[in-house]
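Friendly challenge for the regulars: who can give me the structure tokens for this chain first? No prize, just bragging rights.
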Amino acid sequence: MRAPLPSIRPIELSEVKDARARVYETAVRTPLIKLDLGSEYPDIRLKLENIQPTNSYKIRGAANAVANLNDDARAKGVWTISAGNAGQGVAYAARAAGVPCTVVVIETAPQTKLERMRTLGAELIPVSYERAWQALEDRAYPGIEATFVHPFDDQDFITGHGTMGLEILEDAPDAKLIIAPIGGGGLITGVGGAAKALKPDIQIWGVEPETAAPFALSYEKGSPQKFDAWEASFVDGAGGQSVFPRMWERVHPIADRAITVSLDDTRRAMRVIAEKARAVAEGAAALSLAAAMTNDVGDGPIVAIVSGGNVDLEAFAKLIKI
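First reply, four minutes later:
Bragging rights claimed.
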């Protein structure tokens, strides 16, 4: 019988500040750079999480979650469920701690992400998107007895992501809006929770691809929804088929809006990041800039989180050939 889940509670600013030491043992403090797009665009800053050791922000939450495991939990090893970035983060943190790691991985994940997880020592169990989503709900997978590290509905994971919110407001205390991609909701909960604790009037927006936008639909309906029109796309690290009720409880009080962008606008944003910042952004990571470039976001400063850069380079070259 599964143990009852802990109740949902907001992250505390003191927790996030305490997490920094644990996070920085594994992750790095990433730069915030100003993007020069000309006078027709607002003041946009890019938070470059694609330069983390695993090329994704997920290492922040994973580092904090693994560091906080007790000895019994570590002795069992750890496992997680991932389209690639969370799996890399948990595998990286587990390897650093000398802990075995298993990843139930979505079988359509880019080869780049699969190879990196194997290199980090993770045992991979490929499954369909639907089976992975079910395992997330169940928090269990047949034959795995290790300690489960949830890739977004985990207080330590979310608190680790909150360290990014501290960095953003240290580097841009005048920021008016932070835009973050939404997958499960852990990133926006952590970053937004920390940022609003420091600056209550800052706006926090979430963005999804229009082909996989359960949070945008949930904001429209006022309750957690299933997105029946879900389609797989190159934006594999954001969006989903549904919103977990527990994550709705976490995200809804923090994110002021949840919006969508088209796949074409996302591809254009990937190209802009490559041209202007000389950085590789995967599909999910370009959503924030796409939103800033195609919506009425005010004059800024606006912070667009570039959440990761784990994309096959051949696929990337084709996607940005517009």
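The chain has two domains: 13-56+155-319, 59-148. The first strand starts at residue 32 and ends at 35. Your move, everyone else.
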